[in-house]
Amino acid sequence: MARTGERLVLGFDFGTRRIGVAVGNELLASARELDPLPARDGIPDWQQVARLVEEWQPDLFVVGLPLTAEGEEQPMSTRARKFGQRLFGRFGVPCEMVDERGSTGEAKVIARELGHRGNYREESVDGISAVLIVERWFAAREGLPGR
Predict the structure, then answer these.
(1) Segment 112-140 mean pLDDT
(2) Is 64 in contact with 127 (CB distance < 8 Å)?
(3) Is 5:28 a contact under the CB 8 Å cutoff?
(4) Which of 21, 90, 109, 124 has its CA 20 to 30 A from that of 37?
(5) What is the pTM of this model?
């Protein structure tokens, strides 16, 4: 296990049809998107997740926590927490939840700036959202406000 400040983080933007994935380096406080995982009612192909874990050897999982605009938990919050618990249960890697409010909207703005045509079902922004979630986790560690 890497020391705090030097950890490799695997971040997830939980969804029922797709789960965005990003990998981040705590030392550099930067992340990059990976291919999203297809999901069936929020359940990924756990073998694909295992391949990611094997490839990246993360020290920590970070999962976006979908809250209401007022910061309240909602049914998707419970499902995202359950996903995080399953990650920990299957791989024994610690998992932290991060408030993801606004990350999808911000991801869409970034995608449009990069030339995205607006068909988010065809070309998802889940990976960008996962990057933003990991970056928020880094910002919180630095005592900085989230995006």
Answers:
(1) 79
(2) no
(3) no
(4) 109
(5) 0.87
